[in-house]
Design brief:
Length: about 400
């Protein structure tokens, strides 16, 4: 007797290769360079740290043309600290890399790249926004111990000539260690996992992601609305007040006696101050709200990845439960069931390591972003206060 295959051949568990691996059907030669380690950390399983951490800047998107100017595209300058050699990449290269990574790593949350846009691709706002999205994406790629060290990403960051690019591209597209075989590359700690504990941890994380997804969506809508009100509403209201002071000032200026002029100047200055404050409000979201929206977009991508990752792990657990039942009914040998159990542990260790990585990076990112947001809000209100104080001083000698 064997543990049967799932009837739904389109489920993520099947498509990711998780099922084939659990059933012992994966066979591939694992080279040393392909090995990925899960280790026991302070808080449970985690990916082994990248011994050579690096980062990569993305600068200066420039418009390039080919076919004698018939076709335009945007090229990004990438500079990894690991090589200090600049490479140029187009959006389609990011897109290609993303597709390879998703295919290769079924239990890793590959960050989403900013979405394609066909019209208005070369408008400055869109290009600047996309670059910011790619910077966040790159940050999450280089921060991930597995993604940062994988061959295809290294090729993407280091290849400088067209011929080498094509060779690396072909090699990556023919990579055997994807899907089911990817799981063969994972080495895990010797400890056996407690299945019930794993199940409750994964269920807890599932609830967490659902709640986080709801709150991220709500925060996103709220801050976008907040920014819209500042850009349109607040600016207009402050400028209306400024305009009304100016109107009052114009009335007062009809009286040209010496003791009136000081007040007239002060009121004119106050009117202008309110006009300026209106402009400050309109400019402000770029400094504080936009970066939060960029971060939330990246996390919305991660949160859409996790249901599939959890599904693969759940599928593995189900197979273990089935195999236990088969052993009890005498339909399966113990050693076969043990194999299924060991392979399930590999998927569980990898899933728990990925969950751990997500939490660590989330705490790092949201801490930094909230600090930035509050700092910018403080600068903003200091600027407003300063303007109002300047206006107030104009009345000292009025």
């Amino acid at each position: 007797g064997t543990v049967g295959r799932n009837l739904n051949r389109f489920s993520t568990f099947v498509k990711s290769g998780g099922e084939a691996f659990i059933l012992g059907e994966a066979a591939g030669f694992v080279k040393d360079g392909d090995k990925i380690c899960v280790v026991m950390g302070k808080y449970g399983p985690e990916w082994q740290e990248n011994p050579y951490p690096f980062s990569c800047s993305i600068d200066d998107p420039t418009k390039q043309t080919k076919f004698k100017g018939m076709k335009s595209y945007i090229s990004y300058k990438l500079l990894p600290t690991s090589t200090n050699i600049q490479v140029n990449r187009r959006y389609k290269h990011f897109d290609w890399l993303y597709a390879r990574l998703v295919e290769k790593f079924p239990v890793i949350s590959v960050p989403h790249i900013p979405e394609k846009q066909a019209t208005g691709r070369f408008e400055e706002d869109f290009i600047a926004k996309r670059r910011k999205g790619l910077v966040w994406w790159m940050n999450h790629m280089t921060s991930h111990p597995v993604l940062a060290q994988c061959d295809v990403f290294r090729h993407f960051l280091t290849c400088i000539d067209e011929k080498g690019w094509k060779q690396g591209k072909r090699k990556a597209e023919k990579d055997d260690m994807v899907g089911a075989n990817f799981f063969l590359t994972i080495s895990i700690p010797p400890n056996m996992l407690d299945l019930q504990e794993v199940e409750s941890k994964v269920d807890g994380f599932k609830t967490f992601t659902k709640k986080m997804d709801d709150s991220v969506l709500q925060l996103n809508n709220t801050v976008i609305e907040f920014a819209r009100k500042q850009v349109a509403g607040f600016k207009k209201e402050y400028q209306k007040v400024g305009h009304s002071f100016k109107y009052l000032g114009q009335a007062f200026e009809m009286d040209q006696q010496a003791f009136s002029t000081g007040l007239n100047h002060a009121i004119a200055f106050t009117a202008e101050a309110y006009d300026n404050i209106g402009e400050y409000f309109a400019e402000q979201p770029k400094q504080d709200v936009d970066p939060i929206v960029d971060l939330l977009a990246l996390y919305q991508g991660h949160l859409t990845n996790f249901p599939d990752i959890i599904h693969v792990q759940k599928g593995a657990l189900t197979k273990v439960k089935e195999s236990k039942r088969h052993v009890e009914e005498g339909k399966m040998e113990n050693n076969q069931a043990d194999g299924i159990r060991e392979r399930c542990d590999i998927i569980s260790f990898a899933t728990l390591a990925e969950i751990q990585h997500f939490h660590q990076i989330r705490v790092r990112d949201f801490k930094a972003q909230m600090q930035h947001f509050l700092q910018q809000q403080i600068f903003f209100f200091q600027k407003v206060t300063q303007k109002l104080e300047e206006a107030l001083h104009k009345y000292d000698d009025a």
